[in-house]
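sorry for the late reply, my laptop died twice this morning and i had to redo everyting from scratch. anyway the thing you sent over, i finally got around to it. pasting the sequence first so we're on the same page, its 224 residues, then the predicted structure underneath. double check i copied it right bc i was rushing
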Amino acid sequence: MNCSSVLIVSDDTEFARTVTASWQTEKHIPEITVVASDVWHPTGAAGYGLLIVGPVVEEKSREILAAACALSATAALHVASDEKQAAAIHADHPHLLVIPRNDGWTRTLIAISTEALRRVEAVARAQRAERQALDAQHFAILGRYMLQMRPSVNNALTSVLGNADLLLLEPGAISGSAREQIQTIHKMALRLNEIMQRFSSLATEINASEKESQSETEGVISTF
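ok and here's the structure:
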């Protein structure tokens, strides 16, 4: 979802033109898409940070407003023709933000829309930080387990290397093919030992990752 994008659904071209023109005077201009009610589809709105519903044909109004109320990650608001219509729509859809088209309605619309987009973006950042923190936690659990098992693995590798060295010191006691196999075992054990040595810095990396994720999460929460 593009958190800084706006979808305007309206059958009144002048309404869409007015809203778009009002945004041109702002410092931050979102990506704006305008569609009529006959091409509107609820699933399309999910890709936007904000849905603005303007004047639409009556037979489509109920469907569009119901879909707007059902959006979870997208902010939605409706611009009513007057105070009376705004009150009626709010009564039917109490969770939908409704703005009447009175004096200065465009300034109110832009101000509320800007705040709505900011909140949607903040929520998206918080969700990303939460997912990153969860991923970091999973990796941390795996990393701690590997660190705990490192001494046991090192002991086993030391035993394998030691016994392989002893066998290789007695060339006459083993056949040529067996010697090649022992050399392969010795080589792979050395490689595993090198990998285990890299885990020495893993604890530091895990702690740094956890602190970074925690700081990002706390920073996002503080913006609310």
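The radius of gyration is 31 Å.
thats about all i looked at so far, will dig more tmrw
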